[in-house]
Amino acid sequence: MTAQREWFEKDYYAVLGVAQNAPAKDITKAYRKLARQYHPDANPNNAAAEERFKEISAAYDVLGDEERRREYDEVRRLGPGAFGGPGNGSFRFDMGDMAGAGGLGDLLGQMFGGGSRRNGAGVGPQRGSDLEAALTIDFVDAAKGLTTSLHINSEAVCSTCAGSGARTGTTPKRCARCAGRGVTETNQGGFAFSVPCSQCAGRGVVIEHPCGTCRGTGVELRDREINVRVPAGVADGSRIRIKGRGAPGRNGGPPGDLFVICRVAPHPVFARDEMNLLVRVPVSFTAAAL
């Protein structure tokens, strides 16, 4: 699950002004309406509008994606309180699964002496982060649509070790402490806690000879060229989602997505008003009177 801390705190349905059972088309419609209203280009030098636009975009990033919306609904349904109290008998709690709940695993780890040692690597596969990039396109190209290239500088799978984190000619070894599971268990007062292994930091493997390029992380910062297909009629501020082209995942997890924000350059003659095309033609007073 790729839940983030703000999922517990933010009601994205309220942000977009839609019901929790609203169909996808209503969510998209609400997002587009609010995005036009609070877009920075329509509200220059308005910090409040800019912040509201960011909030709207964050809400749509989750609710506009079927899989992420399902995860969000599940997280909101359970809530932080769903993990409190042992009830009758022992209660099993995987602190690594709470990596997205923001420090709750660390807090419980400190209380019971284990600690959730998350130094960049959680237990099990982790989805890579989503990335954003801006793309400026010509007004006519926005109307007709095009396929173009976008150059970004971001994290990518290490080209030297192919993401293993190990020096060429060597391989990561299975962690002896956790037997490759990435977690160890501890019992306190009837609670069975699974905590990230302190030996391998939850990865399940130990890199004895780190890659010199990525220093054992499996990722490096480099320039990438991404092909972007811009659909015809794209509006200024629209977001195009490219699956799997975000930051690489960790521990065998899938990569994140890339969100391309389209910036449509103004045209000297034509302008767009929602789905209408406007044209400004200078005429003399005499011609206008005829």
Please outline what is shown here:
With 290 residues, the chain is an alpha+beta fold.
Overview of the structural elements:
This protein has 290 residues and is an alpha+beta fold. Among the domains are: 1-78, Orthogonal Bundle (Helix Hairpins); 126-164 and 217-290, Urease metallochaperone UreE, N-terminal domain (HSP40/DNAj peptide-binding domain, Sandwich), CATH 2.60.260.20. Helices cover 26% and strands 24% of the residues. The chain contains eight helices and twelve strands. It has a three-stranded mixed beta sheet, with helices on one face. Helix 3 (24-38) runs antiparallel to helix 4 (47-63). The longest helix has 17 residues, at 47-63. The model is unreliable at 81-122 (pLDDT under 50).
Shape verdict: elongated
- The strand order across the widest sheet is 1-6-5
CATH topology of the domain at 126-164 and 217-290: HSP40/DNAj peptide-binding domain
Structural class: alpha+beta
- Radius of gyration, taken over Cα atoms and rounded to an integer in Å: 25 Å
C-alpha termini separation? 68 Å
Which range does the strand content fall in?
Answer: 15-25%
Helix content: 25-40%
Helix and strand pattern: HHHHHEHEHEEEEEEEEEEH
Tally of strands:
12
The CATH H-level homologous superfamily of the domain at 126-164 and 217-290: Urease metallochaperone UreE, N-terminal domain
- Uncertain spans, ≥5 residues at pLDDT below 50? 81-122
What's the CATH architecture of the domain at 126-164 and 217-290? Sandwich
- Overall residue-averaged pLDDT value: 79
